[in-house]
Amino acid sequence: MLLSCTSGLLDVHAQSASKQIRGIVLDTASVGLRGVNIRLTSSSDTLLTTSDQYGLYQFKNVGGDQIRISYSMLGHQIVTKTLSNSESSSFIVIPNVKLTPQNSLIEGISVVKVIPVVYGDDTIQYNMDAFKFRPHSLLEEALKQLPGIQVSRDGTVYAQGKRVSSVMVDGKKFFGGDVATATKNLPANFVKKIQVINYFGDYATERGIRTEDPEKVINIVLNEDSKQITFGQLTAGVGTSDRYIGSVGVNRFNDGQEFSVIGSINNTNTSLFSFGSPSGVGEREKSLFDANDFVDPTDGLNNINSLGFNFSDNLAENTVLSTSYSFANKRNVTTGNSFLRSDYEMNKISNEESYRTMSDDYFHRLTAEFKHRFKNNDILEIKPVFSYNSVYFGNLRERLITNNRITNDGVYRDTSNQKNPNLDVNMLYARSFKKPGRKLVANLTLNFNSQRRLEDVVDAYSTVDSSQAPPRLTKFDQHYYIQQTSGTDGVKASVSFVEPFTESSFMELFYDYELTDMTAVRRVEDKLKTAEFDQFFYVDSLGVSYDYRFQSSRVGLNYQYIPNKTFRSNIGFAVQPLTLNGYLPREDMYYKYDNVNLVPSAGFKWRINDELDWSVDYVGKNNQPNFLHIIPIRDNSNSQNIVVGNPELKAEFSNRINTTLRKFITKRSQYFETNFAFNKVLNKIVSDKTALNTSTIQQTTFRNADGYYDLKWYFLFNTPLFNESLQLDLVGNTDYYNNISFINEERNKTQQFIYSQSVQVRYTWSDYFESLFNTSYLLNNARYTWPYNNEITAHSLLMSGATKGYISDYVTLGAEVSQRFNSGYESSFMNNNPTILNAYLEVSFLPNKQGLLRFQGFDLLDQNKNMGTYSEYIGNDLYEARNNRLGRYFMVTFNMRLQKYPKKK
């Protein structure tokens, strides 16, 4: 809205000049600043406006010369711009204006409180001055005290119930956006603000239309006196059970230029980097339920070596370059046992295994990010990411497989070496026009991935068939050497043109193109036959040479209507023809699938009042089959579990409806959010399993089926109790899956209901005492219909508490305890009730408390070593497993913090 304070005569003069002025106001993190008061004066006009949620502002029909624009906002320095009288253009774009925070003394006014949390449309901002942190604490510890944020023991950060995927420092990615690196290295007292952002991607942001689910991203805004500083830390520690840790980090921030080097060696499961190996070896998806436990969540015993550097700089006023390199070597040894039961009609197959796995994983990652804004406000972004992964994996399993008449007792050994280079390049160009609202945005993503895998598989067992009298004893022995080379090259290109109709509406015409090429060459040598015939013997039926292509084009329209600040809507429709091709050169067999999808989309958001909003979104999306699903071979390298790919699979098509309600009461520091989502998938790719001739051998292939859907609901509520020293967090999740599968050609429906509820209370008493209490409950209920109706209901209750007391300014004493209660699982090892108890003593010394000596006892009752439990219920399979973990140890650690500020002139 524009407010004119001039007379009608001057207004007429302004209209005749027909000048339009537009610009963006940013904060120091280069994020759009909302609510800035902008005043324009000229020889004939005085106009006022405020910036919108993106920092955008504009003046229309400006008359006269001697134009002067001032920008003011409480708590920020005032900025003034003057336009040259020689400027004759009818449309003027002002260069981006940055407002710098300042501490001002206003006579007669006392600031008694900093607002702790500020809620925006897509951003929740925590003002760190409103929270109390111990001096020299790292950001990871500070985040645990912020309402709505949880941090698990391994450094995973959850914000408003969702995992944080990336992190920035002053608007620039730190170590390629790696979360753990930033939280484990930046001191909390360096940070002015933490901004939790719903990030839809650069392409969606530039277009102004959002059709995908957002990621949670954190932007760390540094204090002004921390933008020019050199700091670092050195850590060394030794303990019982041969535990050790050593790490070093050096960082230099210099007004936009950042340089960091960090390195670590340890066997305490302390990883500097949160990203893992693409192979997923030894990794497991973690949830918010784990964040409130005090166990070490990593399976097995690990030795981790890591090294990395990060550099970013403003090469020019509108050019930013960031680059990072990270290396991690993780050696893992895991021992465990598992139980798998597969139910068939008149044939129940049970598989009990004791296993030992070993992996040696080398992972390199090099990232870069280049951003440039041209003088005409065009934007160019280039983001390459290169990674190289080399993994050795060894797997030794002792197996006992039985059904009602057959017993197999034997050993399965699998060792492999895998190399996997991968390159991703993302490029974005946004064209600026003189006409406000008109946009042309192009995005290009390239991916090049290859994999070479050498695998040696030994499968040997003795079979007793008790259906015969006397029982028949046979032996099975198989030894395969598998060589597989595969590659995946892909390109995604998108172009969007946005044209405004009126001040409150615009139309988008877009085109998306996607192409994925896959190739695979596989040779299988029978080592036993090679030894028998004294020459290489290859199994032709297991070899493959396969080419696959997925190609899709999508063209459509989006219409967005924003009549005011309280309502926003967009409706879209697209046509998407797609083709899947498969070719087997050796067999001269060709597979092809064509389809045309009609893809509607819609989104509505109501800002009911300043503290309440509601949104509803619908989107349709294609999902192509993965490589395992389509590769047309009968893989019997595991003789008891044969997998056959289906090259005639169709692409899935998902329909997702999502609605979110948010309520925040700033004066009470309360926040409530709830979300409900329904997802229905057509042509869902499902498993098709058969038991071969009532034996213990199972064969799995894949097919398309309809009938799958899922429903997901969550809520969260944050509020202080009585006062801000007592904070309550409530988080609840409910997931329901209607899974489809086929068992012996019969359709099977598995209905799974998962519910979790967490109640967490944090209490802080001045500078002397902090505590946290949590109760979490998890229900996992699964029902399946074939071969008979069956139901499994498992419960898990977690109660935990942590306390930290400051005995003096130099001595801190802390303890953590968590108790789990498990019941309803099939296997006895899943129903254990472990108690975890940790304790530590910290002593600070040296000037400015630069030295810290920590005495730590982890898992004092030695029960974490049996905590690596996992369960899954899909189709007719019931799977439960337990892995070893790091057990009790005691450790002494020395930490030295270093800081150097520039000399004052």
UniProtKB/TrEMBL annotation:
InterPro entries per record: CarboxyPept-like_regulatory, OMP_b-brl_3
SUPFAM superfamilies: Carboxypeptidase regulatory domain-like, Porins
Annotated Pfam families: OMP_b-brl_3
Outer membrane protein beta-barrel domain sequence ranges: 432-835
The protein, known as: Outer membrane protein beta-barrel domain-containing protein
Organism: Sphingobacterium deserti
